[in-house]
Design goal:
alpha+beta, about 20% strand, four-stranded antiparallel sheet, about 30% helix, globular
Length: about 260
């Protein structure tokens, strides 16, 4: 569970690499490739249908647009024989953030998670928030990515989320800095032989199965095909801890 303490309101992307001392056990390495994904349009609405292209709370691609773009990426991977990976992220006990600190604080946490995802992935990777307006899950599609690289990215994201410090107002006078949020992560990868018969929905199903395994095995970890590949960390999970101290804001009145 996240912790809260006193607070006052809240490039080129790094190469895929693990920032933690422990290294995930790599299984079934995939072939490599290098094909960047086309940039997502900067406009916030689709010119033809008027739907939102960008998810307002996070600034990531809106889910319906992600579905279309991701299907295109899978089709290109199939035609070129590229490997492809999908990371599915679920914030552990996120409802308790909303219940304890309010939904605006929850939105602030979601924005910080999106920032972590942007920081830990390449420009060509495709990320969205999953689960609609109340969703606390995220999808990251990695074109031309082997399993070992996908696991390294997943660990970078997991570690980045754990190290977040998010300050948000919880009343007109009070704020809290929320720390210790954790995430469970599922990873799935396909190569050409897989993609002959499988599609984006299959990839999502496999990632979802892995995510559920991560939650069953204790949260704050990464799983692939029901296998926990996070490794044994010396430090215990921060899930279940929450310290709460508050910072009182003075409201300044114009005269």
């Amino acid at each position: 569970m996240p912790t809260a303490k006193a607070g006052a309101g809240q490039g080129e992307q790094p190469a895929h690499a693990d920032q933690h001392e422990h290294s995930p056990e790599i299984i079934a390495p995939r072939t490599s490739g290098d094909r960047p994904l086309r940039s997502v349009p900067a406009t916030r609405r689709c010119e033809s249908c008027g739907q939102m292209v960008i998810d307002p709370p996070t600034g990531l691609i809106e889910r319906w647009h992600w579905d279309e773009a991701a299907a295109d990426v899978v089709a290109v991977a199939r035609s070129r024989g590229d490997s492809i990976a999908l990371i599915m992220i679920d914030l552990d006990r996120f409802k308790e953030v909303n219940d304890s600190y309010g939904h605006l604080a929850g939105d602030a946490v979601l924005r910080s998670v999106a920032d972590v995802i942007r920081d830990k992935t390449r420009e060509g990777d495709l990320a969205c928030r999953y689960g609609g307006s109340a969703g606390d899950e995220f999808l990251v599609l990695l074109p031309s990515t082997e399993l070992d690289d996908a696991l390294a990215v997943a660990e970078r994201i997991r570690a980045g989320i754990t190290s977040m410090s998010v300050t948000a107002k919880v009343t007109r006078e009070l704020s809290a800095t929320i720390e210790g949020q954790t995430a469970s992560i599922g990873v799935a990868t396909y190569i050409l032989g897989d993609l002959v018969e499988l599609d984006l929905e299959d990839l999502m199903l496999d990632a979802d199965v892995s995510l559920r395994a991560a939650k069953r095995h204790g949260r704050d970890r990464i799983c692939v095909a029901n296998m926990d590949v996070t490794g044994n960390r010396a430090s215990s999970s921060q899930a279940g801890r929450r310290l709460t101290t508050w910072s009182r804001f003075r409201r300044l009145r114009s005269v």
